[in-house]
């Protein structure tokens, strides 16, 4: 192995003749002496090894590569000629990644090796590897202009061939900012700028997401901005620039060289504006640029009524939220479902719960209201109770932002509502803070324990009895036990009858 690596043909010959050396032995990398000799362009050693008969010209390394793969990677032309012309090596042999020698020659920008394989030995130019990429994909991605030209003029190359991500040669040249390759492909009909990959992205959107400004500039010199393709969601190129965090590109796209403003009032098919996208990706510079240039209004809503502040609040993007609020965003803007940014900040996501509370605090401090009703007539507080957002309720209680005993439009206070929903953990929290008043009835004359009895809220009933004792007042002649029973809650009625009866007996004993 060492003799082959250092190119000592005589030593290799001696080892074979005298020591009966095994020419198929593999080194640490899994390659044979044949692979090393090919990589080093050592044609004499190659002939010695192959002439010995101890190794096949297409012997495989551990990665299933042949000696021709090794030679092609390094552009070892003499070795390639020996392997192909003298020993008939398989030109289109595939390694473990499904790659042929031609693909490796392209990957390493070995022009002469590519020409030898394609022009002289008919290598398959449309062959695909495990990523479903052809040699042309790699040439476009790497900006290998001589190779790309050769493949298109000599080989069989389809510009419609797509890799596993649905990307053509034009997609890859744009994504990597290979301007010369991109323009070459356009000029030779080598692709469609409106073609979408499996993620719904046309070539220029990939360039924008990856900040390839030169590619975008080259395209703008050929075609006006407002005629460029949209992605699968109907989003223009400016959206991709914001997603990638490329503020310089956003300026380039939206402010022409003459100073005129483009990108005005742009929306995708869901009604999202450029500002929504900037909020979604926490791009504060983009938010400032968009609003300073009046590209859209700070409270522009998408088709479901959500503003950029809704989007930033849901993602808990504190910087974007703060910038939007400073720019005058309405903290009480409601979606068509009646949900505001405050609701958005409470959207379920356990991993971001603490950040959610921080976002909530920012909104509250900026004037977000708690009494706005949704389409079902619930406030954000009631929705939080129903969704077990206890941290939010605790934040409000500790901040003295809630009046839990004030009756709402339905005649219930928040204290009554928590009891009726049998939210024992939240009720216990309220009782510990001393904020629930057992002497405040509903609009219909029901006291807290009556509410629990009628709703069948057994946990609430137990907590109320333990904290305040039994309620002596009756409703239409019914005590709490009878009220529970008449409402179909027999087990709760038994509990209340037992507890309240014991209470009465204890009271009678004290009187005696």
Structure description:
With 512 residues, the protein is mainly α. The chain has a domain at 403-512: Serine Threonine Protein Phosphatase 5, Tetratricopeptide repeat. 51% of the residues lie in helices and 0% in strands. It is built from 30 helices and no strands. The chain starts with a helix and ends with a helix. The model is unreliable at 17-21 and 504-512 (pLDDT under 50).
Topology:
Layout: H1 2-5, H2 9-17, H3 33-39, H4 43-51, H5 67-74, H6 77-86, H7 101-107, H8 111-120, H9 135-142, H10 145-154, H11 169-175, H12 179-187, H13 203-209, H14 213-220, H15 237-243, H16 247-254, H17 274-280, H18 284-292, H19 308-315, H20 318-326, H21 341-345, H22 353-365, H23 380-386, H24 390-398, H25 414-420, H26 424-433, H27 448-455, H28 458-468, H29 480-486, H30 490-511
Helix pairs in contact: 2-4, 3-4, 3-5, 5-6, 5-7, 7-8, 7-9, 8-10, 9-10, 9-11, 11-12, 11-13, 13-15, 15-16, 15-17, 17-18, 17-19, 19-20, 24-26, 25-27, 26-28, 27-28, 27-29, 29-30
């Amino acid at each position: 192995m060492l003799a082959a690596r250092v190119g000592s043909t005589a030593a290799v010959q001696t080892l074979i003749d005298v020591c009966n050396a095994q020419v198929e032995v593999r080194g640490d990398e899994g390659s044979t002496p044949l692979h090393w000799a090919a990589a080093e362009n050592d044609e004499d050693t190659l002939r010695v090894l192959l002439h010995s008969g101890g190794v096949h010209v297409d012997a495989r390394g551990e990665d299933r590569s042949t000696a021709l793969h090794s030679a092609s990677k390094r552009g070892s032309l003499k070795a390639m000629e020996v392997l192909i012309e003298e020993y008939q090596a398989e030109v289109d042999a595939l390694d473990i990644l499904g790659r042929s020698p031609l693909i490796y020659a392209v990957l390493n920008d070995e022009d002469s090796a590519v020409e030898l394989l394609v022009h002289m030995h008919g290598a398959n130019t449309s062959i695909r590897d495990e990523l479903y990429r052809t040699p042309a994909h790699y040439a476009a991605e790497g900006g290998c202009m001589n190779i790309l030209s050769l493949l298109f003029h000599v080989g069989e190359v389809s510009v419609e061939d797509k890799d596993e991500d649905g990307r053509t040669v034009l997609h890859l040249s744009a994504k990597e900012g290979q301007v010369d390759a991109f323009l070459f492909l356009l000029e030779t009909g080598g692709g469609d700028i409106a073609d979408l990959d499996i993620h719904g992205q046309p070539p220029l959107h990939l360039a924008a997401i990856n900040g390839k400004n030169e590619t975008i500039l080259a395209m703008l010199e050929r075609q006006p901005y407002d005629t460029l393709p949209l992605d699968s969601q109907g989003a223009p190129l400016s959206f991709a620039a914001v997603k990638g965090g490329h503020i310089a590109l956003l300026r380039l796209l939206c402010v022409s060289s003459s100073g005129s403003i483009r990108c005005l009032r742009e929306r995708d098919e869901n009604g999202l504006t450029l500002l929504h996208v900037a909020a979604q990706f926490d791009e504060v510079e983009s938010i400032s640029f968009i609003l300073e240039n009046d590209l859209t209004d700070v409270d522009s809503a998408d088709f479901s009524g959500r503003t950029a502040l809704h989007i930033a609040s849901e993602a808990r993007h504190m910087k974007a939220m703060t910038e939007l609020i400073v720019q005058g965003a309405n903290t009480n803007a409601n979606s068509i479902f009646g949900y505001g940014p405050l609701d958005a900040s409470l959207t379920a996501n356990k991993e971001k719960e603490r950040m959610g509370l921080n976002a909530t605090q920012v909104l509250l401090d900026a004037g977000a209201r708690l009494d706005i009703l949704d389409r079902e007539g619930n406030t954000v507080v009631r929705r939080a109770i129903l969704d077990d957002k206890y941290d939010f309720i605790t934040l409000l209680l500790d901040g003295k932002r809630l009046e839990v005993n004030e009756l709402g439009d339905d005649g219930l206070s928040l204290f009554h509502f928590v009891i009726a929903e049998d939210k024992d953990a939240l009720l216990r929290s309220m009782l510990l803070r001393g904020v629930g008043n057992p002497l405040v009835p509903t609009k219909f004359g029901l006291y807290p324990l009556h509410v629990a009895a009628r709703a069948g809220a057994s946990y609430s009933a137990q907590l109320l009895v333990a904290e305040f004792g039994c309620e002596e007042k009756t409703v239409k002649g019914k005590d709490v036990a009878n009220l529970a029973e008449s409402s179909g809650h027999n087990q709760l009625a038994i509990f209340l009858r037992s507890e309240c009866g014991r209470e009465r007996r204890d009271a009678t004993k004290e009187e005696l």
